[in-house]
Design a protein that fits this description.
Elements lengths: L7 E4 L7 E4 L1 H5 L1 H15 L6 E5 L2 H13 L3 E6 L7 E8 L2 E8 L8 E9 L3 H12 L3 E11 L13 E7 L2
Parallel strand pairs: 3-4, 3-7, 7-8, 8-9
Antiparallel strand pairs: 1-2, 4-6, 5-6
Helix pairs in contact: 2-3
């Protein structure tokens, strides 16, 4: 199955010059969605994992069924102020300004091995910040996994030293 057939390009969203990769056609097709989750699950057989970390918001859509499929805890990483318990946070640079991601302090234990999942790898900033966040808890990042990697934006460069897996490699 060609998963790229289920990714829709939306030009000039959310602003002019951006080619938004819409994953909703994949999500609404049960066969394509299941295929994507199964490909991630197959990739995960290479690791001994203790938990799946999903990045807000579209990363949750991939991480949740994967965690369910692998029978692993699902750990959400969210933007600042959205988690209700004690958190650890990391602030990172965006193209225009900064952003902060947080994880509950008790989400993962020291020494645990986690897979970090998101829908898209662009510049790598959010994924790198999430990896630092997980490592700040004492856990180990076993790998990083994304549905789509925008190869033109060279996000892997920001993730040097990590095992990065993408199901689809697309141009911007």
């Amino acid at each position: 199955m060609k998963l790229e057939d289920y990714i829709r390009n939306i030009p000039d969203f959310p602003r002019p010059g951006i080619q938004f990769k819409d994953i909703t056609p994949l999500l609404k097709n049960p066969d394509a969605f299941q295929e994507a989750v199964e490909r991630f699950a197959q990739y995960c057989t290479e690791f001994s994992l203790d938990a799946i970390v999903g990045i807000e918001a579209r990363g949750f859509l991939i991480a949740a069924p994967l965690a369910y499929r692998l029978r692993k805890p699902l750990i959400p990483v969210r933007k600042k102020g959205k988690l209700p318990f004690h958190t650890t946070s990391v602030t990172y640079a965006l193209e225009y300004g900064n952003d902060t991601v947080e994880i509950h302090q008790d989400a993962v234990a020291e020494g645990q091995h986690v897979l970090i999942v998101d829908d898209l790898l662009a510049t790598g900033g959010t994924m790198a910040a999430t990896a630092k966040l997980v490592e700040a808890t004492g856990a180990h990042v076993a790998a990083l996994a994304v549905l789509i990697e925008l190869t033109d934006l060279k996000g892997r460069a920001a993730l040097e030293g990590y095992d990065v897996h993408s199901l689809l490699q697309l141009s911007d």
